[in-house]
Specification:
single chain; alpha/beta; 5-stranded parallel β-sheet; 5-stranded mixed barrel; globular
């Protein structure tokens, strides 16, 4: 019958889902007459946990004979909560989910909630293996995990307790994975991790992320496009900044973990930067790479946030020149310091999130207008849809998934660029 993996949340979960599917299949899960459904959960917000539980119940209704396994960050942080669900057959941890033996040792049907759980202490995990994935099903770009976990303890964040402390995949393993993906036909590779700019701190010699980037680009000359997922700008090293400014195969798009635009709120979040650090970084990077585009994570309605403090976050969108916003209404996570701080009324949190999203939509619309008439190189994701180098989504009139086409931006279409493919500099007939 096979194994279905349903992933929530980040790119890293998407990557790990491929490893999980392979390892669970190798262990024999889903063989015979009973299929298996593995839920790879996210814990970043209470809403993410609610959605996972809702989908688990739906899956059981639709697949009464299936074996349902729950893993991921939410399962690591709250194993008992999932084990108590009658729909769930087993709960395994974030470290265990990537190992075939974990799926071979699952409990039988009908055991107690305590027997369902196989979750180890994630803080005791000190290494991250470079799992080889030759393809990511249904995606035009490949994802490579270079790092896992986080050593920082932002007051709002539960993720370190789901992922453990920071640990890096060795450089050689990362480069080998990229080589294999390029040999498999991928034109674009995305590097991913929980706290990417901490990569290398636990490796011999403590190399920095910039050195890894430069090594990949030098060692894999056939890689057309290398992209970074979210980074912490305050940790960007000189080699990384140099690579972004000079390496044209490193894509001009950075997604920044900013979270807020007010210094007091940043301090209460226990972030390591101030608003001026973010503004300065964006300005300096734009001077080195004029075509660069920034996205950012921003939280609306953090505890104690006043109207004036929130206004500073709104202003940050313009002051940093942000284009793609991921807006999170503050959601208290049990076990974090922020959950014990004075909370704002839910209606204020909701209203501020809406205002921040509206600001982001206006910034995105202005960005699209600036691209009218420009020439772009578009990676085709699926029929009729692709992304420019700066990650802007495009409608395009032709192209096979995974291919890169030169195109002219001829219009706007429902929040997307309208691109016309070119052949030798001339619009395709």
């Amino acid at each position: 019958m096979g194994v279905d993996v349903i992933s929530f949340g980040c790119r890293l979960n998407t990557y790990e889902a491929e490893v999980m599917k392979r390892e669970a299949g190798a262990a024999g899960l889903g063989a015979g007459e009973t299929n298996a459904i593995v839920f790879n959960t996210c814990a970043v917000t209470a809403e993410a946990v609610r959605q996972a539980r809702q989908q688990i119940r739906k899956a059981r209704r639709e697949n009464p004979q299936a074996r349902i396994v729950v893993t991921g960050c939410a399962a690591q942080v709250e194993p008992a909560r999932f084990a108590e669900m009658t729909e769930v057959d087993a709960v395994i941890g974030n470290d265990e989910k990537l190992k075939a033996e974990s799926y071979r040792a699952l409990p039988d049907f009908g055991v107690s909630a305590e027997e369902k759980v196989k979750v180890n202490d994630i803080m005791s995990v000190t290494e991250t293996a470079g799992h080889m994935v030759d393809a990511i099903e249904g995606r035009a770009r490949a994802i490579v995990q270079i790092q896992n976990g986080c050593d920082h303890r932002c007051t709002f964040c539960i993720i370190p307790y789901g992922r453990g402390n920071s640990r890096s995949v060795p450089m050689g393993a990362v480069v080998e994975q990229v080589k294999r993906l390029v040999a498999s036909g991928y034109n674009e590779v995305v590097l991913s991790g929980v706290d990417m700019t901490s990569w290398g701190a636990d490796l011999p010699g403590s190399p920095k992320l910039g050195r890894l980037i430069q090594s990949i680009l030098k060692t894999v000359p056939d890689l057309a496009r290398l992209r970074l997922s979210s980074i912490d700008s305050v940790e960007a090293d000189e080699a990384l900044i140099e690579a972004i400014g000079s390496e044209r195969r490193l894509m001009p798009h950075l997604h920044l973990s900013l979270q807020a635009g007010d210094d007091m709120i940043l301090k209460r979040m226990k972030r390591r930067h101030l608003r001026d650090d973010s503004i300065r970084f964006c300005s300096e990077m734009r001077a080195k790479r004029p075509d660069i585009v920034f996205g950012a994570d921003l939280i609306a309605g953090f505890p104690t946030e006043t109207d004036a403090m929130f206004d500073n976050s709104l202003k940050l969108v313009d002051e940093c020149g942000l284009t793609f916003l991921h807006v999170f209404p503050f959601s208290p996570r049990e076990g974090t310091p922020a959950a014990r701080m004075p909370q704002l009324p839910k209606e204020i949190v909701k209203a501020r999130a809406a205002a921040l999203r509206e600001k982001g939509e206006a910034a995105h619309a202005a960005h699209l207008s600036r691209r009218l008439g420009s020439l772009q190189r578009v990676l085709i994701e699926r029929e009729g849809i692709g992304r420019a180098e700066d990650f802007t989504l495009c409608r395009i009139d032709r192209g096979e998934p995974g291919s890169i086409l030169a195109a002219k931006i001829i219009g706007l279409d429902a929040g997307l660029l309208q691109a016309e493919a070119l052949i030798d500099g001339v619009a395709a007939a």
